[in-house]
Design a protein that fits this description.
The chain is α+β, with helices and mostly antiparallel strands and 138 residues long. 19% of the residues lie in helices and 33% in strands. It is built from two helices and six strands; from the N terminus they run E-E-E-E-H-H-E-E. The strands form two sheets. A four-stranded antiparallel β-sheet has the order 3-4-5-6, with helices on one face. The chain has a two-stranded antiparallel ribbon with strand order 1-2. Strand 1 and strand 2 form a beta hairpin. Helix 1 crosses helix 2.
Length: 138
């Protein structure tokens, strides 16, 4: 039976006249070297990632060219690059690094990062953070 997941928020308004678009990647499960405890060192744990990025609409035509877009592969590649750097002690650190990577894109306005450790307890435990570029609110 499929687990019922909470729906994510609708795009927000950047200003009274300009809506934001949203790029998202939900429920990506990867093996990650994460954890502060001795028994978590040198092993991987299953971790589920969900990331929503509010982006400013493109100011120039994308012309159906993926290289000109902020897309979900940008998010996935960023996560994989971060976890490939080696062991991370805290899910909070991992979430902050993912948020910073997403917000480094010029069109990104704000980001919601949800990380769940699937092997810690029955069910899932984790963190969800929301970050925005200076001057933006979510």
């Amino acid at each position: 039976m499929a687990e019922k997941r909470a729906t994510h928020a609708k795009p927000i308004k950047a200003s009274a006249e300009r809506a934001l678009d949203r790029v998202f990647m939900h429920d990506l499960v990867l093996d990650v070297e994460i954890g502060v405890y001795t028994h978590e060192k040198g092993v991987t744990q299953r971790v589920r990632f969900s990331v929503d990025v509010d982006v400013l609409p493109a100011t120039v035509a994308l012309e159906d060219d993926i290289a000109r877009a902020f897309d979900y592969d940008t998010i996935i590649t960023g996560i994989k690059d971060i976890i490939a750097q080696g062991h991370i002690n805290l899910v909070e650190t991992l979430a902050e690094r993912i948020a910073a990577r997403c917000l480094a894109h010029p069109r990104a306005s704000s980001v919601l990062v949800r990380i769940e450790k699937l092997d810690k307890e029955p069910g899932a435990v984790g963190i969800e953070i929301v970050r925005a570029k200076e001057g933006n609110s979510r």
